[in-house]
Amino acid sequence: MKRRQFLVTTAVGGGLTVALSSCGNQEEKLIPLLISDETVVPGAETWVPSLCQQCPAGCGLHVRVMHGEAQRTVNGELRRQVIRQAKKLEGNPAHPINRGKICARGQAGVQTLYNPDRVQTPLRNVGARGAGQFQAISWDEAIDTVAAALQKNSAAAARARVLWLAGPLLRGYRRELIGFFLGSFQPSSLLTVDLFGDQVARRANLLTTGQDEVHSYDLERTNYLISFGAPLLEAGPSPVRFNRGLGSMRQDRPGRRAKFVHVEPRLSLTAANADEWLAAKPGTEGALALGLAHVIIKENLYNAAFVSGMSQGFEEFKTLVESFSPEQAASVTGLRKETIERVARELAGHGPALAVIGGSAAANSKGPGAALAVNSLNALVGAYGPDGAVRGTPYRSGSETPSNGGLITELAEVRQKGAEAAAVMFLSDCDPVHVYPASLEVKTAFERVPLIVSFSSFLDDSTLQADLVLPDHTPMERWVDDVPEPGVGVSVRTLGQPVVKPLYDTRDTADVVLQISKKLGGATATALPADTFEEYLKSAYEKLFPQWKAADQEDFSAFWDAAISKGGVWREESSAPFQFAGASNRYDFRAGDIRSAQLDSPPAFAGEGSQFPYLLQVYPSNSLGDGRYANSPWLQEAADPLTGLTWNSWVEINSETAERLHLTDGDVVEVQSPHGKLEAAVYVYPGVAPDAVAMPMGQGHVDFGRYARERGINPVDLLAPSTDPATGSVSSLSTRVSLTATGRRVKQANLLGVPRTVEEQHLGR
Amino acid sequence: MQEHNEHAAQPESRKYRWGMVIDLDRCTGCQACVVACHAENNIPIAGEVETYRGHATNWIHVERYFEGEYPHIKTRFIPVLCQQCDSAPCEPVCPVYATYKNPEGINAMIYNRCVGTRYCANNCPYTVRYFNWWDPVWPEPLPQQLNPDSPVRMKGVMEKCNFCSQRITRARDHAEDENRDIRDGEIKPACVQSCPTNAMYFGDLADPETEVSRRAHGGRGYKLLEELGTQPRVIYLKEEDWSGKAG
Fold first, then answer.
1. Do A301 and A425 belong together in one domain?
2. Are residues A204 and A185 in the same domain?
């Protein structure tokens, strides 16, 4: 008997048995199937397009939906019901960003939806901030409280600022809507919280090309990629896209395999996957880029057509790089002169070539200058040209994508002036108290804001400081809309309907914003005529219809339905060439003044070398990122690809350091910087320099649910309060530390092998 | 590569011989396959203490090898899952015949026959068999995610990769409904489906025209610990060097 025949027989038989035995508690079994609250076919799977909201890459999803039984409260009674359940997330095969692929973090999106520690109703903080004493309140009460505070501020003689702190996920029409809402409370600010974001590269792009964007790349055609510190594969702006591109660069063109060179002092996952890893001294990536530029110009290897036709300021740049001879660059970076010359020749000789920057190379005091230098390399090899590897981003509007904001500056002002500087602070999809170094005193700024409203689904470190928690639906419970950035050179707009019914008494934050503005009336309500986000989204799509409709779509409803069933709208026809913007409309070699960045010397770090001998390298964890995925048990138990470690924090030291300090895996050390101290277990790692230590972000939450609570430490709390003044981006490579053995040991949960002593092995300790 | 013998060896009803190709030149060790497998196959979470004790379950895991010292280190990643050996060392040691070679080449487990001797895990040279030391714990509402097509294994039972046999069954049902053969590429185990770099391929090794067969015979193929005579059904493609061709 085949499996299906068996199932059919047993289902019919079983149904009869249940129906015939009318005594006992059989309604528990039968009734869920009769009173199902949605149309579901038992055993059948449906795939619903949606948007991955685990990171800002904006990958398209297909969610596998099946029926399942769950305990539900129906009319005050606890019942078992058959409902739609999200079972598995896969990539949308048609989506241009991820083409059906999905990363580890993306898979875990379903554990955000079904996380056992979600905030289930609106909450009011009834204790001291941070004490975690919350009381459930009604949505009416919550909305009234927020509206009253906003009203009071608007009526006041000296109006204070309304701040909205959002994670990098806030894009598309949702961002536009919140922008309109905030616009009615001048003064107000919409600020982006993103520790490992691409603010520095974005600013360099704006200065040199006029485009305020994270560039789109044509990796599939790229023959030579050099990355300066960019964590492309583990934490970049679009990990699936870069993984996909790297695979394609290597093996999708028979007979032609591209080369990938990565420059970074620590062996990161991206470095481990490079064909050549160049461990330049920390913060000297800019000097290397200018050294490469020196060779390319001196040997006349640059793309003369691009440089003469589409750039300006080349002569000044040429004069500047004269002092960056390979010898000079070698002495600053610690690399060999011959290596620099060879890489420069390879880069210029294997077009389309591309240079990118990110990670620690951008997050240090020389980072902004290095980003300009890296863009200059792209200009020299003609990457911005019509056939270059940098592509245009055809569909983009400023109100829908985050740009650089002065978050740190504004928070500093709040810290000083308190209620005069900020009346209400909203938090959505972000945890600034966790991700920013303690030395920046974000928490102190929070203490001085009269009303903090968090839309978080979890009690994260920032939400613990909030007065009100207005839990958002998780992404699969609401409408989703997005304009991905970076793109892939084609116009993309992602759209998705709610996949499952909300599990709890939560509301879509965009809906709550509309309800608050209704309550306030006046200018706020006029700015936002819609009642729900769905309505807002639909009317926005109506405006897209004439321009985006397909030939066979006669009316809007056909267009709308097609967009929902496809997962958005996009045009595949052709990848658009890069377009310069700004006054000159060409590449500007002079922009940003590279000279003043003084790339000829390494950056200065906080802490005297004699007292603090090791440079601290803080990096985003492959599975937990900056900590926003630490509440997923799958991601807690996913091995760090290089160390194999799970479920906790660690500090990586070189074997030389380990030998000198008599340390081994699992030994707990005190890591101290001029700004703080923490304890973590040692992992002896060959990929970190003898004069450095490295620590992953991800753990060290106060709460954030059972899987994250009080687990490990947060290494950013060791960092100096060092930020880039232009972008507000935090320098994660800024501080030196010392190590002191504590004499204690812990057991490390390592999936790549467990180092054990004989006693542990045989005595079961 | 011994696949050429398979046509002759099989009776007519045994049509498909499933196999996998993993291209190590593409693999970046990103762990997407690992989490995809957890989601698809209801893999239990061990927690920190049990993971330390070596009790974590990962039907697929990515091994990492370093060569050299700072700053000249070469890193290699190898995703390792059950190799579905044609001559599987785990099978003959099972006293209750809970693990056997199914007609399509998959080294299958009958969970409710397993009595937990763990002999099979001891005998597996790839260490890809996992024992349930405890009943799995899924706090509400996490069970809503569990895949109804895959059983939840309880304490005392051995478990392992089965090439997502539930997906194979679904594809076979679809094909039978439409009165046709399963198409090449129609079945994607969860790891293959998610793999961001397209490093993994799955299909019928008995048919020389399928993508897996073509890639397996592309010249870069080898099998893990082949010299043990296990005859694995997973073929790895070795890493390549830069071709150095000018653009």
1. no
2. no
pLDDT tens for residues A207-248?
Answer: 999 998 899 999 999 999 999 999 999 988 899 999 999 999
From CA A653, how far away is CA A740, in angstroms rounded?
13
Tell me: the pLDDT tens digits for A96-125?
999 999 999 999 999 999 999 999 999 999
Other CB atoms within 10 Å distance of the CB of residue B131: 18
Contact between residue A580 and residue A386 where contact means Cβ atoms under 8 Å apart:
no
C-beta atoms of A634 and B142 within 8 A: no
ipTM here: 0.93
A378/A409 same-domain check: no
Nearest by Cα to B86 from B237, B243, B229, B241: B229
Partner B contacted by A345 (CB < 8 A): no
Phi/psi for A95 (5° steps) reads -70, 130
pLDDT digits (tens, 9 = 90+) for A72-95: 776 777 778 888 999 999 999 999
Where b means 16+ CB within 10 Å and e means fewer, B151-167 reads ebbeeebbbbbbbbbbb
**Cis peptide leading into residue A187 (ω within 30°):** yes
Contacts B54 to A, Cβ<8 Å:
754
> CATH 3.30.70.20: does it fit domain B3-237?
yes
User: Residue A250's CB: how many other CB atoms inside 10 A?
Assistant: 24
pLDDT level of residue A762 (50, 70, 90 thresholds): very low
Q: Say yes or no to pLDDT of A763 above 90.
A: no
- Tell me what percent of chain A is helix, strand and coil, each rounded to the nearest 5: 35, 20, 45
Q: Assess whether pLDDT exceeds 70 at residue A19.
A: no
Rounded to whole angstroms, the Cα distance separating A229 from A236 reads 10
Cβ <8 Å between B31 and A98: no
